[in-house]
Design goal:
Elements (H helix, E strand, L loop, with lengths): L5 H8 L5 H6 L13 E5 L8 E9 L4 E6 L7 E4 L5 E2 L3 H4 L18 H8 L12
Antiparallel strand pairs: 1-2, 1-5, 2-3, 3-4
């Protein structure tokens, strides 16, 4: 039988409580995105692939990150920081694209980032982070 991969050996030989530490230790020191930062993203779980608010949940090596769709019970997705599936805050507004209001937006009015930042005590990813 073939030998197990090194990654499996590493995970199996380590205490699983340290697994997150192994992953997070790989974060680049100069990562432009931060955990908790908001952005706009294509919801790949939505039949219409609408764009909605999302949050950076985890950062990985080489510009990889996990994002979650705000207010959605779906799992997060892993994207590259140059992905065509993510956009800066207010991208939809600047392009006259209808953005889906996140399920956890408290107001019954139209979605706007200013109110959402106050509600979630968060900040958004800048346009400069998205230069491809």
């Amino acid at each position: 039988t073939p030998a197990p991969s090194r990654n499996v050996d590493l995970v199996d030989s380590e205490d699983h409580s340290n697994y997150d530490q192994l992953i997070y230790s790989q974060i680049e020191k100069n990562a432009k995105f931060q955990i908790g930062m908001k952005l706009e993203a294509i919801d790949v779980y939505n039949v219409f692939n609408s764009i909605t608010a999302a949050t950076v949940r985890r950062l990985f090596r080489n510009g990889q990150m996990e994002i979650v769709y705000d207010g959605s019970p779906s799992d997060g997705i892993i994207v590259d920081d140059r992905s065509d599936y993510i956009f800066p805050v207010a991208y939809c507004q600047s392009q006259n694209i209808q953005m889906s209001k996140p399920d956890n937006f408290a107001k019954k009015t139209a979605f706007n980032w200013s109110d959402y930042f106050k509600q979630t005590n968060s900040e958004g990813a800048s346009f400069v982070y998205f230069k491809k």
